[in-house]
Each structure stands twice: as structure tokens, then as C-alpha cells.
Specification:
Largest sheet: 8 strands, parallel
InterPro entries: Amidohydro-rel (IPR006680), GlcNAc_6-P_deAcase (IPR003764), Metal-dep_hydrolase_composite (IPR011059), Metal_Hydrolase (IPR032466)
Enzyme class: hydrolase
Strand order of the largest sheet: 8-11-12-13-14-15-16-17
Protein name: N-acetylglucosamine-6-phosphate deacetylase
Helix content: 25-40%
GO molecular function, one term: N-acetylglucosamine-6-phosphate deacetylase activity
Distance between the termini: 32 Å
Number of helices: 10
Keywords: Carbohydrate metabolism, Hydrolase, Metal-binding
Structural class: alpha/beta
Shape: globular
């Protein structure tokens, strides 16, 4: 008989509703049920969490690094393991290590590392996000322009082959450097295509969506803005209902008023969800690091190149959720969904992630009233305790 664990004493947010005086029952790494405390089987192993809250583990689809490691600089299984462990400290139970635009050799190494991490079942590893190299020079942000280029047939083939060994594969590209036929081929192979780092107009973005693009990367950042006669990429993200869009909620990448306006304007069923875009300093006291040979400086919650260009973010997912609640004024429940359920839906993993209901993976964070993470569990096993 599979052992049964019961987490007791905590309020439980299942992704839709709060449960009081209940226990979270875990069996075989999955959620068996949320049951009234009086109905917990006598044979269950009890784990008390009195006075705390259980919430679905956070899902982060854009994670460049953490724990002192950047995927571009350590494209191997141990690098991925370190990144996942660093983010687990902040409640993230599933993430996509993200490769920023780099050489073909580094891209190939990162894909091989992702395949190996999937085979090794590294806790927290969900798949890969390839952010580039098929982006727009005009909206390159911190990406090295020396590596930005059009998608070639071998790039398409490499990406499609990689998807076969991964649970999830996300690719950010710009319509300027990838054809709609290539987007359609990626979508047919199960790759989630996200539009980003692009200066294209609404019509080109809409055509890419019609071909199969499903997402926008870090809404507002590194994309053509919303204008009165040209809606741009921002307008497309808000108007095209089936698009999901990631958002960096750190107070530096997007103004709170813009966040609020976007949330009110977004047409469904697509959602705006949270990403950290975190770099290697997360969870460390590092003051600088290198990407593609360029030094990036950490100061006052910001990461920048020497010229002041933002280069990723210095924030964790729990902090993003606090920002949405405390600064943007969102209900905690919706902020939690933006950090768990909505990204799981965007990547096609809502059947496993983002909820604490029967059959879902037993991935959850234990938080206090300040949304500080007390412990993190992946697959029914504690991986971090404060």
C-alpha cells in the first residue's frame, strides 16, 4: 500500500477556493484529496503546519539563473539542478531554465543538459525556454546582437528534435527572424511559441498567432508599444484573446499603473501570468556577473549592463506575488493564480501543475501571512525548509 501523508493545521488554497479545518492528503507524489480534518485516515503520517497556508507551487516559465549559476554559463545538469534548488527556496516548484541568445554550440549544450535533466527527474525541472537567437536587433534588450540571426532549417530541426525528449519546450522568437511556416511547424511539433524582442506591428503579430504562436514574452518589455494608429506588440498581446503573456512584476520593468491597465484590458481566454526573468544572483550576495562576456551589475533590486540597459530581473516569484498584492492591489488569490495556475495553463501543464486537487502533482509552498515561504514541497517531498 502506498504511504499516505496528511498536511494538517494550515489553510489550503486549492487554486480556486480556500479550505479551513482541512488536511492535504498526499499519496505517491500526487494530491489524493483535500479532506476535512476529521476524515483523515488513521494510518496517515501527520505533518502539522499550524497557522500557515498551503498554496499551489509556483510555476516560472522564464528563469535565466539562480544560486550563482546562469544557464548560459553552465549549460549542464548540475547547473540546472542548482537553478531549480535556488528557486525552490522561494516557492517555485516547476520552472523552465531559460537560455538567452547564444552560440549554436551553447544552445546545443543547453538542450542536451535539458534532456539529461528530464531523464534524471531533477526536482523542479519542467523543460526549457530558448529565448532567442531569432529575435529583432531593434528590440534586443540585453541580448548580444552578434548572436541574433534568422531561423535556419537546422535551427528548426534542432528545436523540434529537442521537444521529443522534454515535457515542455518554449521558444521566444520575433516575426522578423522566423517565418510563419516555421512557427506552424514548431506548434505542430508541440513547441510553445512565444513572440518577444520584436518591433513588429499588430498585423505581423496577428499573422504569427494565426500560424501558431501562443504567448508573448515579458509584456511591455522589448516590444513595440501600444499606439493610437499602430497597436504594436503590446496591443496584440492585449487584444488577441488566445495569447497568454508573461509579466515581470518587480516595479522596474513595468510601472504598476501599466500593469493594472493591462490586466483590465486583456481579452480572454488568454491570461497574463508572472515570470521572474531571474538571473544568477538570486539567492546569493553577488554584486555582478557575466553574460556573453559582458558584465552585469546588481544594485538596488535592478540588474543592468554598464549603459543602464535592464538585463533580467533580481526578484523571486514570492516577491512578485507580494508586489501584485501590495503595490498593484490585486487580491492574493488572483496573484497566486498568476504565479501558478496561469503559467501552467500557458504551457499546457494545467492537468498536473497549478492546483491542489485530486491527481495533481503534490507541488506546494507553505507560506505565512506575508507570503514568505516557510517550506517547499515537490512531488510530496520537502525540498526546502526555512
Amino acid at each position: 500500500m502506498t504511504a499516505l501523508t496528511a498536511i494538517t493545521g494550515a489553510r489550503i488554497f486549492d487554486g480556486d477556493l480556500w479550505h479551513e479545518n482541512s488536511a492535504l492528503l498526499i499519496s505517491g507524489g500526487r494530491i489524493a484529496a483535500v479532506a476535512p480534518r476529521r476524515d483523515v485516515p488513521t494510518e496517515a503520517r501527520l505533518v502539522p503546519m499550524d497557522g500557515l497556508s498551503l498554496v499551489p507551487g509556483f510555476v516560472d516559465l522564464q528563469v535565466n539563473g539562480g544560486g550563482g549559476v546562469l544557464l548560459n554559463e553552465s549549460p549542464d545538469v548540475e547547473g540546472i539542478r542548482t537553478i531549480c534548488a535556488a528557486h525552490a527556496r522561494f516557492g517555485t516548484t516547476a520552472l523552465l531554465p531559460t537560455l538567452i541568445t547564444d552560440s549554436v554550440a551553447v544552445t546545443t549544450a543547453a538542450i542536451e543538459a535539458g534532456l539529461a535533466a528530464c531523464a534524471a527527474a531533477v526536482p523542479g525541472f519542467l523543460g526549457l525556454h530558448l529565448e532567442g537567437p531569432h529575435l529583432s536587433i531593434a528590440r534586443k534588450g540585453a541580448h548580444d546582437p552578434a548572436f541574433i540571426r534568422p531561423m535556419e532549417p537546422e535551427d528548426l530541426a534542432r528545436t523540434i528534435e529537442a521537444r521529443k525528449g522534454l515535457d515542455a519546450l518554449l521558444m521566444t522568437l520575433a516575426p522578423e527572424n522566423a517565418t510563419n511556416e516555421q512557427i506552424a511547424a514548431l506548434r505542430a511539433a508541440g513547441v510553445t511559441v512565444s513572440l518577444g524582442h520584436s518591433d513588429c506591428g499588430y498585423a505581423a503579430a496577428a499573422a504569427a498567432v494565426a500560424a501558431g504562436a501562443q504567448m508573448m514574452t515579458h509584456l511591455f518589455n522589448a516590444m513595440s508599444p501600444l499606439g493610437n494608429r499602430e497597436p504594436g506588440m503590446v496591443g496584440a498581446a492585449l487584444d488577441l484573446g488566445h495569447l497568454n503573456a508573461g509579466l515581470i512584476a518587480d516595479g522596474y520593468h513595468v510601472h504598476p499603473a501599466s500593469i493594472g491597465a493591462a490586466l483590465r484590458a486583456k481579452r480572454g481566454p488568454g491570461r497574463i501570468f508572472l515570470v521572474t526573468d531571474a538571473m544568477s544572483p538570486l539567492g546569493t550576495d553577488m554584486t555582478s556577473f557575466f553574460l556573453n562576456g559582458r558584465e552585469i551589475f546588481r544594485e538596488g533590486g535592478r540588474l543592468t549592463l554598464a549603459d543602464g540597459t535592464l538585463a533580467g530581473a533580481d526578484i523571486d516569484m514570492a516577491s512578485c506575488i507580494r508586489f501584485m498584492r501590495d503595490t498593484v492591489g490585486m487580491d492574493l488569490e488572483e496573484a497566486l493564480r498568476m504565479g501558478s495556475l496561469y503559467p501552467a495553463e500557458a504551457i499546457g501543464m494545467a492537468g498536473r501543475k497549478g492546483r491542489l486537487t485530486h491527481g495533481h502533482d503534490a507541488d506546494f509552498a507553505v507560506i505565512d501571512d506575508g507570503v514568505n515561504v516557510v517550506s517547499t514541497w515537490i512531488g510530496g517531498t520537502p525540498v526546502f525548509a526555512a
